[in-house]
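note to self — DONT lose this again. spent like an hour looking for the file last time. sequence + predicted structure for the chain T wanted, 106 res
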Amino acid sequence: MATTRKERALRNVERAVQELRAAIEAEAEEDWSMNRWRRLLTKVESAGGSVDVEEWKRLGRESGYTNPRGLGGFYRGANGSMRREGDRRVLTDAGRRFLDEYGQLA
């Protein structure tokens, strides 16, 4: 049986809805990741901008980082949000600018 114009139009709409749903889900994942990042930096800022290693790991778990290895991204690149100073983990100027731009999140 030949495909009718209405059937083709319906398939096009269904495909568009699937693409929109995928875009919304990807955006929600990105928002979740960004909020988790903001939440942890906010906790460090609230603690005076510096925490010891164990506190850093605890705050990471509270913010949604189940594996301490996930915290490594905070130190990467020329504009890392955190830096190591001995056994302290310190919020950088870049981390503060990030919070200024995107806002703190409790």
